[in-house]
Design brief:
Layout lengths: L3 E6 L9 H9 L2 E9 H4 L4 H19 L4 E7 L2 H8 L5 E6 L4 H16 L4 E4 L21 H15 L44 H14 L4 H4 L12 H6 L4 H9 L6 H22 L21 H9 L5 H13 L4 H14 L4 H11 L5 H12 L14 H8 L4 H6 L37 H18 L1
Parallel strand pairs: 1-2, 1-4, 2-3, 4-5
């Protein structure tokens, strides 16, 4: 066994249930953690996630300090260029956990061959999932395209295996350095960016993830089935950013859920959400083309519109539909958006405005702290009707009725759309119908009229959908 063990950190900012890190500490005298930051992949593309990664590095470094393990960061445009240098080093072994995106898994195979040729010991561990995606298939050995049968099979496979053992990393007697050259963690992000305000809402650490889970299970999971659709209350777990960057493992979440003495509807609904995450990973790995294209090819002929003015209004939360605008502003201010509102805002873009889902996917990619390629792409294609087990295209969310149903008193809207704070409840989701005057408020001046008429937009969307039905 070599003297130095290297843990290649990617989406695993945790000590608990980190198989690759634990293995390194149990088998090597010297251990180092290396994080490769691909700057071009984040700047102007994943800016919210860039902030999250930077804060995660700072917090994870403190956790590693307690184990006497050094965290080394290196900035590069590609993984290949870093490994070209690392492969020149002597007497080390390297370990990492899988990331379930096609390009990552492809690179795992490529670098494994190179390590083997150089006689460098390595080991690749299961990542932050319940099952390996290729473990879940239909009886004819083909992948599932419908969620319910997928999750029924996936859940059984996982429960039959049982929870994996959780052995913790072993503390080192002293820190050891591995890289000959490395970067400052501060180089990961520039100072004074728009994301700085996220600190008011998030603490990207393993400790915080654990506390959030504990509080959710003790206070919110019982009513999760009902309250998860109400954006004005804390009805969801808000664990998605921590899962996306690996501050917590999905097995840890489920294991803690299993400890509940009473498991009601909220428990089942929450566990099913973990299933949708697994389903997304399965889809993008069996059908990698969907990361760039429509899974349902008939949508290749869909008559999308290009309208920069409408796209900008949507991004800025100035569509004139309060529930849509509240969601877009929450996203920009916090790097996160309530799941029900994500569906409403996405539906509005692709159906009311008929702007291609890729534009929405790209914007969410840049603004979400919980960005994950599989979830983001699968979610947008689900709303657009062009993905697996997708919502029918003709299911068009009425933003007025959605607001009235899930934000009846307008609490969520008024929190994020300050211009509407004085608008009465009965008009909060349709201020253009207001028959009273409000001091210092004028529709069209302080808040826009709707950029499209709901009924006309709906009819236009249905007509567009029918056009591709006829052409196939």
């Amino acid at each position: 066994m070599t003297k130095t063990g290297v843990f290649w950190l990617r989406e695993d900012f945790r000590i608990k249930r980190n198989n690759a890190l634990t293995y390194a500490t149990l088998n090597h005298e010297n251990v180092s953690v290396v994080y490769i930051f691909k700057k071009k992949e984040f700047e102007k593309k994943r800016e919210a996630k860039q902030w999250w990664i930077y804060k995660s590095l700072l917090n994870f470094e403190k956790d590693l300090d307690n184990l006497n393990i050094k965290l080394e960061v290196i900035l590069s445009d590609t993984y290949e260029s870093v490994f070209d240098k690392i492969l020149q080093y002597k007497n080390f072994s390297i370990y990492w956990n899988k990331v379930y995106e096609p390009d990552f898994l492809k690179f795992d195979k490529k670098i494994a061959l190179q390590l083997a040729k150089k006689n460098v010991p390595y080991k690749i561990f299961k990542g932050n999932v319940l099952n390996e995606f290729n473990e879940v298939k239909k009886n004819d050995n083909t992948p599932f395209k419908v969620f319910s049968p997928f999750w029924k099979n996936a859940e059984k496979i996982y429960l039959d295996k049982g929870f994996s053992k959780d052995s913790l990393p072993k503390k080192r007697t002293s820190k050891s350095k591995f890289l000959k050259e490395y970067s400052k963690k501060e180089d990961v992000i520039k100072a004074a960016n728009w994301q700085d305000k996220f600190s008011e809402h998030w603490d990207p650490s393993e400790k915080e993830a654990s506390q959030i889970l504990k509080k959710f299970l003790s206070e919110n999971i019982t009513n999760y089935g009902d309250q998860r659709d109400i954006p004005s209350v804390k009805g969801t777990s808000r664990l998605s950013p921590y899962l996306a960057s690996g501050q917590i493992h999905v097995e840890t979440i489920w294991e803690e859920c299993e400890k509940l003495k009473v498991k009601k509807r909220g428990y089942r609904k929450f566990i099913n959400e973990l299933g949708w995450r697994e389903f997304s990973y399965s889809l993008v790995n069996y059908f990698p083309e969907m990361l760039k294209e429509n899974l349902r090819k008939e949508f290749d002929n869909f008559p999308w519109k290009e309208n920069k003015k409408f796209l900008i209004a949507w991004k800025k939360g100035l569509t004139g539909y309060p529930i849509v605008d509240a969601g877009m502003r929450e996203l920009y201010e916090t790097g996160w958006m309530h799941n029900r509102v994500r569906m409403i805002t996405a539906s509005f873009l692709v159906k009311h405005l008929r702007i291609h889902w890729k534009e929405g996917e790209k914007h969410f990619q840049n603004c979400l702290v919980d960005f994950n390629s599989a979830n983001n792409t699968a979610g947008w294609q689900w709303v657009s009707g062009c993905g697996a087990d997708a919502a029918p295209y003709f299911r068009i969310f009425n933003p007025i009725l959605q607001g009235e149903k899930f934000d009846k008193k307008g609490i969520y809207v008024k929190k994020w759309v300050k211009e509407l704070e004085e608008v009465p409840e009965e008009f909060i989701h349709k201020p253009w119908e207001m028959d009273i005057k409000i001091k210092n408020f004028e529709l069209g001046k302080h808040y826009p009229f709707p950029i499209v008429d709901h009924q006309k937009a709906r009819e236009s969307a249905l007509k567009a959908f029918n056009s591709i039905k006829k052409s196939n």
